[in-house]
Amino acid sequence: MANTEGGNQTSITEFILLGFGDLPELLTLLFLLFLVIYIVTLAGNILIVALVVADRHLHIPMYFFLGNLSCLETCYTSTLLPRILVSFLTGDKTISVSGCMTQFYFVSFFAGAECYLLAVMSYDRYLAISNPLHYAALMNAKFCLQLAAGSWINGFLAVIIVLFLMLQLTFCGPNEIDHFYCEAIEMLNLYCNGTNQTELVITILAAIFTLPPFVLTMMSYVYIIITILRIPSTTGRQKAFSTCSSHLIVVTIFYGTLIIVYLLPKNNTLRDLNKVFSVCYTILTPMANPFIYSLRNKEVKEALRKIATKCVDFTRN
User: Fold this and answer.
1) Is the entire prediction scored with pTM above 0.90?
2) pLDDT digits (tens, 9 = 90+) for 229-264
3) Looking at 70-74, 81-85, 200-204, which range is the least confident one?
4) Closest by alpha carbon to 273, among 260, 287, 283?
5) What residues contact residue 177 under an 8 Å CB cut-off, 6+ apart?
6) What is the H or E stretch that residue 151 is in?
7) Residue 15 phi/psi, 5° resolution?
8) Angle between helices 285-295 and 61-78 (to 10 degrees)
9) Pairing of strands 14-17, 176-177
10) How far apart are CA 94 and CA 254, in angstroms?
11) Which residues pair with 11 in a beta bridge?
């Protein structure tokens, strides 16, 4: 598992993901629970993508970005849950260093891209509510493609630099990661001494790439709320708020749990609570998003109704 390089340092070739602890009596239950979550997440998000592509009434910026988010959530979940399910099924908690780095890259890439995509969706709702007359001209097809592509590219750039810096370091052990996936902070604790400068650079880069979309999201909703409060009629305010309420719920859940995870003290007492909140933003949020958008959105519900009607008609014929 590890080869001695010299002195007290060892070169680790694999990690042990401790996950949710040693709970053999709950492995079957956890496997079934996470399997259901994975199936529901894939089905819900793929359905949203299919609806956005198939229904011409959803060929507008808001649903274009929603389709991107659902595609991202499908990929995000697929970097985590298959490995967790295999671990529950076989009891094997080991993962190679290269496998761990690959998982870290994709989890961080999709998380970073989601931050930017949520900011783009917030900005889209701000333009739609504060400047409805010029919205179609401002949020044209070319600009939408640029914003979506920019979200994916920024997620890629944010993590590729961090990954490059991490690959320059050596793991000294122990080889246990007290998490259910290769989480950045847990991995940094396993590096050899003398990583303070690298950790500082990584922290600065993480702030550069994650704070701007967070600030843009918050500013967009501040202006949205101000604009809605200026609408004279109650009906008008309700209608305006209904167009962004689903996205606001998603943003609150995502950033709320993410902030809690990285602001909680990293001591043994709160370690398990940290894992619970990590499950919320990495696994439960991607599952909940399709329900939040479909249950609170008339256009999506109408598209679902049309698809259901066509399926019923097809089975009858």
Assistant:
1) no
2) 888 888 888 888 887 888 888 888 888 888 887 776
3) 200-204
4) 260
5) 15, 16, 17, 18, 100, 183, 186, 187, 190
6) helix 141-167
7) -115, 160
8) 150
9) parallel
10) 29
11) 3
> Do the beta carbons of residue 202 and residue 168 sit within 8 Å?
no
How far is residue 59's CA from residue 52's CA, in Å, rounded to a whole number?
7
How far is it, in rounded angstroms, from Cα 227 to Cα 225?
5
- Token output for 43: 């089905």
Sheet holding 94-96: strands in order across? 94-96, 14-17, 176-177
Cis preceding-peptide flag for 174 (omega within 30 of 0): yes
CA distances from 254 to 39, 138, 285 (A): 21, 28, 7
Q: Count of CB atoms within 10 A of residue 154's CB? A: 21
Which positions ≥6 away from 193 have C-beta within 8 Å?
A: 172
DSSP secondary structure of 250-306: HHHHHHHHHHHHHHS--SHHHHHHHHHHHHIIIIIHHHHHHHHHHHT-HHHHHHHHH
- For the chain, what percent of residues have pLDDT higher than 70? 91
Written as six digits, the tokens of 291 are: 């329900």
What is the Cα–Cα distance from 289 to 87, expressed in whole angstroms?
A: 26
Residues 6 or more apart whose CB falls under 8 angstroms from that of 57 comprise 299, 302, 303
Q: What are 106-116's pLDDT values in tens digits?
A: 998 999 899 99
Q: Which residues of 236-256 are buried (b: 16+ CB within 10 A; e: fewer)?
A: eeeebeeebebbbebbebbbe
